[in-house]
């Protein structure tokens, strides 16, 4: 099922740091490649560019690992690149290579991977991804040129989708590709393209929700029947529209200039050879059938370069039918892309504008191919909302750098117009899947929140030396992927107070400011449970009641009562449980590091432990290669056979934990937390106060737009 659709939303999620199950499996790419072959050849209104990007990402994820779950017997001892960061970098390169091969645009592929995909980018990755994209482009070019023309090594066909060369006829002296006056029309087309794209996204979102409610929960056969229904409807509509609504128009002679290149001649011949007669008399062609009964790439070339005109009525009907059918098709359970259908839809819209300007306003100087290209850019930009990469992809596909300015202006206007109504199509499908995708930055008003407002204070933690039964209990009763490693610090609390200042790690805070901050935090969270900081408890010891208003006296009285409540002792063989009281859950805990679930499971699986009668030095040590041997699929705690292990044995986790993870203070602004989390590619961010106590933890879920909005509303309600 994960092979359905274009795959770009899934790859976008993966590069953003979310692991979508099965998205980069070998069986996925086999299903994707086979499925898109038949869906495109079968005449569905889908493209192959999106699936190519997904396929490239799967190749990038699997090739450096030198192993596959589907082919278990084929394994090589290649320990390099066995980490999430390396794998993510290769997926970025693979996605860029897919774009480069699809459009013959290596630079556009690199920018696509940067703009749409990767959350975590570094300078060294830029060159590697560009080299990968360039290699993909020329590999495809080499084989296509050799197979199609028999001239191996000539490099004549750069990508699967080539727009041909835009060139005015030499006999038409008034013709220009575009002029400054045309920019005004391009801006208007960008606005209309943004509106059409927003309409497309809105309709497709409603269809996707309907499918999630009424199609996906039902037996798998229902999805097959839906795909067959779409295929049947598409076939009938194409045939009926061509026969009933098409017009017979006179053929125009093939144009060849004396100094045309070979590729331009080929494009001209392809354009004029692909026109369809379809029940029309000799020397005429059916304009509707020419658009419907050709492959999508040939239809785009027709709209870009056909000398003969298409009727405005034909273009309008073609646009409407293609718009509705492609919107219905995107989302059914077949591999399907959206780039080419959007380009074809937009090209028809642009050609329609050019025809109207020529016929009714009398602008004879305009070049119809330019307007078709700008219309394609406007509609595609309104649907997917890409700017930088799409501009470069279209420029590289046309081989015409002079189109840079109009394409960029059109795409920007289309994006701004569409963003006023809804998100891009890929973001919509990501949200429908409920994936916690992190945007590029937070909104300005989110800085009213602090780390303590969004963190999860209810922690599940382990001790440096923990019994096996405790670890097994923790792992089986939680789904967390990392656990803070802590020790209790009750005996050392009073030592931090010296004179009028709290001294910790060379940071000095005046009592009054801490007390004020405590009041603000209490007022925001309405509970001390979310702020179990010893610096606040210590400040209560010498509090002068006359300095604070009555409500703060109540708060401090509660704090004093909690301060002197004896904390229950917790032995290493006890594990965090639902029966704990709040006192037990929020005791002061000195933070020592983070240990991953995969590491704990590996330690249990390999029996790394020692007995009470021994020292921790007698515990066996595992190397990094041994710890990561099962990457990327570590065993599940429920599948482990632990009968040979003594539950009273103790595991020393200190050699395997991360002793210096990124941490933030409880008072850190949310924007700083967000930037640190996203740019460093984190999964867990502990919140540690000034005396080294862990008071909460922040994960991706705590930084999603919906979660931050909910916490901001709570913040306003408590003010």
From TrEMBL:
Q: Which reaction does it catalyse?
A: 2 chloride(in) + H(+)(out) = 2 chloride(out) + H(+)(in)
Q: Which Pfam families match?
A: CBS, Voltage_CLC
Per the record, membrane topology reads: Multi-pass membrane protein
- State the InterPro entries in the record: CBS_dom, CBS_dom_sf, Cl-channel/antiporter, Cl-channel_core, Cl_channel-6, ClC
**Keyword Nucleotide-binding among record annotations:** yes
Q: Show where the CBS domain sits.
A: 657-718
SMART domains associated with the record? CBS
Q: Where is this region: Disordered?
A: 518-537
Keyword annotations for this protein, in alphabetical order, are: Antiport, ATP-binding, CBS domain, Chloride, Endosome, Glycoprotein, Ion transport, Membrane, Nucleotide-binding, Phosphoprotein, Repeat, Transmembrane, Transmembrane helix, Transport
According to the UniProt entry, its GO molecular function terms are: antiporter activity; ATP binding; voltage-gated chloride channel activity
Keyword Zinc present in the record's keywords: the answer is no
Extent of Polar residues compositional bias: 527-536
User: Where is this gene product found?
Assistant: Endosome membrane; Late endosome membrane; Membrane
A GO cellular component entry from the record: late endosome membrane
Task: Give TM segment ranges.
Answer: 90-113, 177-201, 221-245, 313-332, 338-357, 369-395, 401-418
* UniProt main location, coarse: membrane
Q: What does this protein do?
A: Voltage-gated channel mediating the exchange of chloride ions against protons. Functions as antiporter and contributes to the acidification of the late endosome lumen. The CLC channel family contains both chloride channels and proton-coupled anion transporters that exchange chloride or another anion for protons. The presence of conserved gating glutamate residues is typical for family members that function as antiporters.
Q: Which family does it belong to?
A: Belongs to the chloride channel (TC 2.A.49) family. ClC-6/CLCN6 subfamily.
Family annotation (PANTHER family): CHLORIDE CHANNEL PROTEIN CLC FAMILY MEMBER, H(+)_CL(-) EXCHANGE TRANSPORTER 6
Q: What is this protein called?
A: Chloride channel protein
This protein's species is: Zosterops hypoxanthus
């Amino acid at each position: 099922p994960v092979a359905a659709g274009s795959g770009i939303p899934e790859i976008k999620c993966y590069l953003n740091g979310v692991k979508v199950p099965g998205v980069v499996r070998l069986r996925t790419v086999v299903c994707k490649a086979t499925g898109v072959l038949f869906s495109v050849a079968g005449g569905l209104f889908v493209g192959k560019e999106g699936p190519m990007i997904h396929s490239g990402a799967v190749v990038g994820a699997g090739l450096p690992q030198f192993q596959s779950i589907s082919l278990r017997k084929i394994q090589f001892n290649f320990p390099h690149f066995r980490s999430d960061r390396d794998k993510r970098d290769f997926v970025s390169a693979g996605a860029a290579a897919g774009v480069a091969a699809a459009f013959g645009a290596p630079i556009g592929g690199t920018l696509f991977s940067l703009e749409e995909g990767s959350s975590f980018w570094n300078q060294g990755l830029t060159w590697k991804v560009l080299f990968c994209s360039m290699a993909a482009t020329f590999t495809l070019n080499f084989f296509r040129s050799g197979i199609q023309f028999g001239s191996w090594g000539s490099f004549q066909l750069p990508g699967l989708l080539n727009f041909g060369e835009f060139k005015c006829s030499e006999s038409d002296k008034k013709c220009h590709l575009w002029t400054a006056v045309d920019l005004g029309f391009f801006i208007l087309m960008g606005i209309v393209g943004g509106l059409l794209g927003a309409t497309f996204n809105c309709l497709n979102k409603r269809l996707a929700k309907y499918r999630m409610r009424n199609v996906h929960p039902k037996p798998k056969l229902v999805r097959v029947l839906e795909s067959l229904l779409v295929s049947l409807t598409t076939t009938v509509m194409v045939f009926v529209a061509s026969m009933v609504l098409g017009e017979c128009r006179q053929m125009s002679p093939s144009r060849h200039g004396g100094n045309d290149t070979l590729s331009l001649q080929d494009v001209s011949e392809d354009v004029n050879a692909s026109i369809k007669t379809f029940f029309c008399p000799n020397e005429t062609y059916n304009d509707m059938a020419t658009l419907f009964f050709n492959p999508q790439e040939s239809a785009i070339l027709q709209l870009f370069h056909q000398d003969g005109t298409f009727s405005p009525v034909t273009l309008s009907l073609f646009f409407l039918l293609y718009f509705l059918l492609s919107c219905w098709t995107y989302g059914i359970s077949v591999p399907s892309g959206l780039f080419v259908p959007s380009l074809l839809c937009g090209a028809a819209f642009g050609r329609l504008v050019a025809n109207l300007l020529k016929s009714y306003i009398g602008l004879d100087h305009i070049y119809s191919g330019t307007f078709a290209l700008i219309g394609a850019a406007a509609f595609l930009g309104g649907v997917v909302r890409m700017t930088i990469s799409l501009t470069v992809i279209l420029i590289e596909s046309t081989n015409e750098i002079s189109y840079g300015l109009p394409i960029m202006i059109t795409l920007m206007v289309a994006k701004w117009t569409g963003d006023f109504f809804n998100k891009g199509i890929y973001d919509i499908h990501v949200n429908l899947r409920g994936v916690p995708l992190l945007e590029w930055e937070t909104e300005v008003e989110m800085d009213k929140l602090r780390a303590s407002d969004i963190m999860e204070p209810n922690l599940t933690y382990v001790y440096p030396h923990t019994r096996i039964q405790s670890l097994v209990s923790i792992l089986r009763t939680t789904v967390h992927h990392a656990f803070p490693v802590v020790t209790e610090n009750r005996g050392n609390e009073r030592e931090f107070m010296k004179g009028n200042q709290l001294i910790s790690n060379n940071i000095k805070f005046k009592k009054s400011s801490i007390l004020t901050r405590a009041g603000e935090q209490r007022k925001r969270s309405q509970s001390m449970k979310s702020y179990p900081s010893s610096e606040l408890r210590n400040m209560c010891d010498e509090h002068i009641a006359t300095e604070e208003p009555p409500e703060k006296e109540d708060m401090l009285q509660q704090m004093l009562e909690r301060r002197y409540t004896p904390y229950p002792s917790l032995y290493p063989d006890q594990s965090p449980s639902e029966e704990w009281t709040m006192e037990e859950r929020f005791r002061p805990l000195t933070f020592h590091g983070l240990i991953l679930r995969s590491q704990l499971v590996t330690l249990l699986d390999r029996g790394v432990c020692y007995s009470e009668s021994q020292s921790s030095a007698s515990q066996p040590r595992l190397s990094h290669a041994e710890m990561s041997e099962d990457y990327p699929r570590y065993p599940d705690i429920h599948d482990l056979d632990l009968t040979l292990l003594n539950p009273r044995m103790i595991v020393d986790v200190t050699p395997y934990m991360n002793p210096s993870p990124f941490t933030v203070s409880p008072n850190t602004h949310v924007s700083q937390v967000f930037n640190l989390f996203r740019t460093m590619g984190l999964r867990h961010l502990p919140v540690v106060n000034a005396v080294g106590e862990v008071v909460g933890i922040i994960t991706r879920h705590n930084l999603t737009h919906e979660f931050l909005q909910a916490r901001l509303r709570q913040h306003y309600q408590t003010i």
